[in-house]
Design brief:
The chain has about 400 residues and is mostly helical. It folds into two domains: about 1-80, no CATH class; about 85-395, Glycosyltransferase (Alpha/alpha barrel), CATH 1.50.10.20. Helices cover about 65% and strands about 5% of the residues. The chain contains 17 helices and eight strands. The chain has helices at about 1-15, 20-30, 35-50, 55-60, 65-80, 85-95, 115-130, 140-155, 170-190, 190-210, 230-245, 250-265, 280-295, 300-320, 325-335, 340-355, 375-395, and strands at about 210, 215, 220, 230, 265, 270, 355-360, 360-365. The strands form four sheets. Strands 1-2 form a two-stranded antiparallel sheet. α7 (about 115-130) packs parallel to α9 (about 170-190), α7 (about 115-130) packs parallel to α17 (about 375-395) and α14 packs antiparallel against α15. The chain is globular, with a radius of gyration of 23 Å.
């Protein structure tokens, strides 16, 4: 019943919003402090019905001189703006609705300037898996099955997943698809999916990982033939972690190579994209997550994690950060736990919620430029993935 009520509030906001002027909204906010009970309650109801067009004025009202206005403005904001789990639910409905008949998501149709179908299909699949939908269970299981089948259709006999049969491989596309297939394999234990994930992992180790002096493995390049970089290496570290968790095989030399590359780009807890480069926030987030996934102790990463995530929160206060970076930060802070999680989670959640747009009972995120993939599908999938970290953590730790 609660879920239905929340959805009706969101829908009324979408349909009624255009009828309210700024002056009418301001007048309703002033009535939140009325001495008459009925007048206060009616103002609350009408502002909820106005919905998102009232959000900016309500945020200002939370700093009103009258405490009654402040309290009711916060209450109305809580009703208008969906909670994390509601955003996840609505985001998954939007993704499901916009899946193509063949199982992929059409990246160009949703704002990507180039073909990023493998990347966006992988990210969308991960979003469904992150909410517990698999090839076997969940209301979106048919969507998951189709996405897995489409990714497998892009894989050749050697295990390579790519857009073209020949030419240079977009390694990040392969890495994301490998990550999604490994997660699907671990959750549903379907032999064909497990075999596909294992082939993708073996191909990555043998044919994509850069070999120093032609022998010693290091990191991964974004495109075959290029130098190893931390963005691609982060994606593959996440993928190999999922491969291991799924009970599939990862050669120890592959992991040793990842560690060696991380060592080559780290300077006092900060990370650069390539050896000899300047450390940057995006790369530091990637480096920290890789260290966590490869077994580093929390206390050894704490100072670096606090600096990086604090800087991301500052960035989020003035402009929308890359959804991929937000996803990384949430994964980092949930594993570090404690005050770092509490200090960053609320700010990052508010930043994400402001980019959420509702349409006909569904929800998606405004397209944002990302290092992984551009367009509305990618933004929605990555934001949902990040929020799944958020609400799952609260469900497991209700007192946090």
């Amino acid at each position: 019943m609660i879920r239905g009520c929340i959805l009706m509030i969101v829908l009324s906001a979408a349909t009624y919003a255009a009828d309210a002027t700024k002056a009418e909204i301001d007048a309703l906010i002033e009535k939140l402090g009325s001495a008459k009970f009925d007048e206060r309650e009616k103002a609350v109801e009408k502002l909820i019905a106005v919905g998102t067009p009232a959000v900016d004025a309500l945020k200002l009202a939370t700093k009103h001189v009258e405490i009654e206005v402040r309290m009711r403005a916060e209450k109305v904001l809580g009703e208008i703006l969906p909670s994390a789990n509601k955003i996840v639910d609505m985001g998954l409905v939007w993704l499901h609705t916009h899946q193509e008949a063949d199982g992929r998501w059409d990246s160009k149709k949703h704002g990507s300037p180039v073909d990023h179908d493998i990347e966006q299909t992988s990210l969308a699949l991960l979003a469904f898996l992150g909410a517990g939908h698999t090839e076997k269970v969940g209301e979106h299981k048919e969507c998951v099955k189709k996405a897995v089948a489409w990714l497998r259709s892009r894989q050749n006999d050697a295990g390579r997943i790519s857009r073209e049969a020949d030419g240079k491989i977009d390694c990040i596309a392969h890495g994301l698809a490998m990550l999604a297939l490994a997660e699907a394999a671990g959750m549903a234990n379907i032999p064909a999916t497990r075999a596909s994930a294992q082939k993708a992992a073996a191909y990555a180790s043998e044919s994509l990982q850069v070999k120093k002096d032609g022998y010693e493995p290091t990191g991964f390049p974004s495109v075959t033939g290029g130098e190893a970089d931390l963005l691609a290496t982060t994606v593959f570290t996440m993928a190999f972690k999922s491969v291991k968790v799924a009970g599939l095989t990862v050669h120890f030399r592959t992991l040793d190579g990842l560690i060696a590359f991380l060592d080559s780009v780290e300077t006092k807890g900060e990370y650069a994209r390539k050896p000899g480069g300047e450390p940057a926030l995006a790369d530091t987030l990637g480096g920290l997550l890789c260290r966590q996934f490869l077994g580093w102790k929390r206390e050894d990463l704490q100072a670096s994690a606090e600096r990086a995530c604090t800087n991301l929160v500052k960035e989020a206060a003035t402009s929308r950060p890359d959804p991929f970076h937000v996803w990384l930060a949430r994964l980092i802070t949930i594993q570090q736990g404690g005050d770092l999680w509490r200090k960053t989670s609320k700010s990052l959640f508010e930043s994400s919620r402001e980019a959420f747009e509702v349409e006909a009972g569904m929800g998606s995120f405004k397209p944002a430029k990302s290092e992984l993939s551009n367009g509305r599908v990618a933004s929605t999938a990555m934001e949902v993935l990040g929020l799944e970290v958020y609400y799952r953590y609260l469900l497991l730790n209700p007192n946090r």
